[in-house]
Amino acid sequence: MKTAFITGITGQDGSYLAELLLQKNYKVYGLKRRTSTPNFENIQHLKDDIEFISGDLTDASSLVTAIRHSKPDEVYNLAAQSFVGESWSQPILTGEITALGVTNLLEAVRREKPDVHFYQASSSEMFGKVIETPQKETTPFYPRSPYGAAKVYGHWITVNYRESYDMFACSGILFNHESPRRGIEFVTRKITDGVAKIKLGLEKELRLGNLEAKRDWGFAGDYVEAMWLMLQQEHPEDFVIATGETHTVKEFVDIAFKHVGLDWKEFVVQDPKFMRPAEVDLLLGDPSKAKKRLGWKQKVDFEQLVKMMVESDLEKYIRERKG
Ligand code: NAP
Ligand code: F7E
Fold this sequence. Notes:
Distance between the termini: 42 Å
Number of helices: 10
Order of helices and strands: EHEEHEHHEHEEHEEEHEEHEHH
Bound molecules: NADP nicotinamide-adenine-dinucleotide phosphate, ligand F7E
């Protein structure tokens, strides 16, 4: 039986990855930070199958203890301050968690179990103000937020540990991926939650920022499979994971409202509060290396993703209404 240690287990990706690894018969450990109220929503159904270890990416000693205790074959570093918008309000904390936190974990692995296969959650936000389109593994980085800059550090320190210590350390450069378990402040989930509330008469409007931004959106359940595949390779390498399609926020809004028979123009209000100090205008990934070398491909397309998320939020509020 293989053993995996996942940071960010309570997040969107952590929950799908834990599901996948449990199906594959892994023993799964998850790093869990202390919270004043429980936040097990995404992993409620898996709680009894995961062994939680208390710790924080900014507390190096807790990571050493976690690796020593779990003795993992594979480590997936998914923990981060992951909301781009918030990274302007908390730039230092974002750097401490999303950048230096990676070094804390790599050091714990190097000292306690250097033969681990290590996955770092890199991001298309590193491409920022894009130098070329589509973006691939060799495209230079130009981050546009404290979050993007922190991810560039996390990416390069992972390359550096691979080259300095011959560790099996690699990064997935993942483009946006969404699901019904996506945090409520991200634009996709904010839209589908808003559509469900408007449809059920619980809200009258949906306030959004830049509707022209373009993103390459995939389904999180498909993307965690790529993470696992990367760690099963003979040699550690970095891969772009994307759909190869890009859509505006407006297109997402349009499909989501249409799905419940409404016209978005009657409900969406543009609010400068949700505009960013620096925007990433266009992201479009080229997943051909992952397709060829990992045999990875997405199963859920853009329209299916939007509809899946709207349906899930509708069901949630209908369930809540019934009590
Ligand atoms: P998410 O839902 O925001 O989850 C983030 C996780 O990190 C949560 O479990 C959170 O725990 C944990 N965390 C935050 N700060 C921590 C700390 N100081 N110590 C330990 N754990 C901490 O993010 P996601 O969408 O699943 O993304 C997973 C990873 O992929 C992140 O690194 C993200 O930056 C990266 N990424 C995401 C996307 C995407 O489109 N989703 C694309 C590219 C890269 P709490 O529950 O306690 O807050
Ligand atoms: O914004 C625009 C916003 O916050 C997408 C994270 O997982 O993916 C995610 O980062 C776009 C931006 O995601 C609102 O300006 C308009 O252009 O959903 P988002 P993100 O910033 O792309 C990358 C790959 C990650 O790595 C990150 O961790 O939508 N937008 N109106 C809005 N965005 C938000 N949040 N809220 C709005 O009202």
